[in-house]
Every structure is written in structure tokens, then in C-alpha cells.
Amino acid sequence: MVPLIAGALLIILLVYYVDPSRLFVQAGRIPLLAFVQFGASVLVFHILRSIRWRSLLRRMEADASFGTVFWTNMIGYGVNAFIPVRFGGEVARAYVIESKARLGFFPSLSSIAVERILDLLAIVGLATLGAMSYSSSTNRGSFVLILMSTGTVTLAMLAVVLIGSRNLPAVMRFFRWTFSKIPMRNSWRGRLLTVVESTLVGVASIGRDRRLVGVSVVLSVAIWLANFAGFYALFLAVGFGGPVQALLLAIMLFQLSFILPSTPGNVGTFEGFLILFVGGLGLGAVDATLAVGVVGHLISLFIVGVLSVAGAVLLGLRLKELFRIPSMKKTLIKNEA
Known about the structure:
The protein is an all-alpha fold. It contains 14 helices and no strands.
């Protein structure tokens, strides 16, 4: 509740800073076509994510139809947007796929972890492309530092997936040796090793398929280009006339901000980070950027809200199940062990 109140206060502060009348004027400039384009980009974004996730799951021999994967994906986004639990959506997705595709919880979760690595790789790659094409960005040393540090960590994680998948027994020996040095009950150590091995088996099965990794990288780039296209349509509607590559850099940096702790539904932080990066690169006025942020955020929440509820109904889930994420995690860990 406290983070949500803080986010609401941030929104109020931003609106007060730019003057509500200016915000409404800027939002009123956005035509219906731009609303439709942004909404379409959100749908394409989630469809492509579902195609990619299904490919990863099929490599792990999970029997999941596209419909099941799509609705599960939307449920996960709905949990992240409307339930104040960090990473609750990822847990909910793994929980649903475990029950619908009969794939273990931790192997399911490992496919989601690979997704996150691919997302970071695509976002950093597109942001770097934007930075290389936009010479003025070289004066923003802090933004370049964000890209370099995030890119280094992402490449390291991808290397672990690709290299570790080729020699899973050696990786497990490393974890057994590491856990043996940590004072804990043997039963706890056994459970942790079971969880680690179950997770790594899922990651390894994906990492060994280089063609799948390559296709997934291409899909990841398409996913985030679709996301950018929606924002670009809204910014054009409020009079944006700067370089496309500059806006690409700003939007990708904005997407990286979702790694950080945030308010439920990203209330306030969504708009705040958008203003920070677009304004930080000297693109667009604050009132126009805030209008894009508020409109885009509302459209995204509406689509996610409707589709997540529809997904829960179609998959036969009770909504109250999705509000028990913390206890769900404990139960699943216990059962997996």
C-alpha cells in the first residue's frame, strides 16, 4: 500500500509541475489513430512474447498450446501490474504452466529466466544502436555507463547459459561443493540442490539448441521494436520531431528501468522514468512526455487487465488464487523439493 501511495503522489507531483491544463492540451492532441497504433503495438508485443516463450517451452518438452501460453503470459503481466508482489507475475506464470503443461515449476521458471536474459540482450542492443547513431548521446556519460554495465552483465548471463548447458554435471559439482561449505541442515541442502538442478536442466535444454537461441534473439528484437513503434506513434502525435534513433535510445533506457524496484502497476515510476530519459537526452517537452506516459500507461493497463481476467477465466483459474503468490511460492518450493 505504501509504494502505491508513493507512486500516486509522484503522479500528482508531476501533473502539478507541468500544470494540469497543459497536460490535457497535450493529451488532446493525440488522435484516435495513435491510440489504435499504440494498442496494436501492445498486442503484437504480447503475441510475439508468447510465440517466443512457447518455443522455449517446447524445447523443454512442455505440451502447451499457443492459447495456453498466451493467456498465461497475460495472467503474469496482470499479476505484476495489479498485485503488489515483486516478481509475482513470473511465479504465477510458472505456476500456471506447471499445472497446464505438466512441466515442473522450476524448469518453467528457468524458461522465464532465459526470457529475461533475451529481453535485456535485445534492449541493450537496440539502445546501443540508437546511441551509436545519435552523436549527442555521447555527452550523457551516465546513460552510456548504464548501457555498458547492463550489457556486460547480460552477456555474462548468456555465456553462463550457453557454456553451462554444455557441461551440466560440472556445473552441478560446483554447486554441490559450494553448498557443502555452507553450514545448514542436510535436508535443506538437499532441497536446494534439487531446486538448482531442476532449474538448470530447463536452462540447459534451451542453451544446447543454438538454432533456438538464434531465433529467440531475433524474436526478442522484434518484440522490443514493436514496443518502440507504439511509443513512437504517440510521440509523433504530440509533435516530436527529433531523430528516431535518439527516441529509440530513450525508450530502451526507459525499459531498462523496469529492472529496478517499482510501485504496483508502475504507478508514477512509469511516467517518471519516461520523463527522466526522454528529457535527459534533450528530447521533447515535459508536458508532452508526461501526456505520452499517462496515455500509454492507461492503454497498457487496460489491455493487460482485460486480457489477464479473460485468461484466468478461459484457463479455469480463480482470481483469488493469483493473490496468494507468497504462500504459493513456499508451497511450490516445498513440493518440488
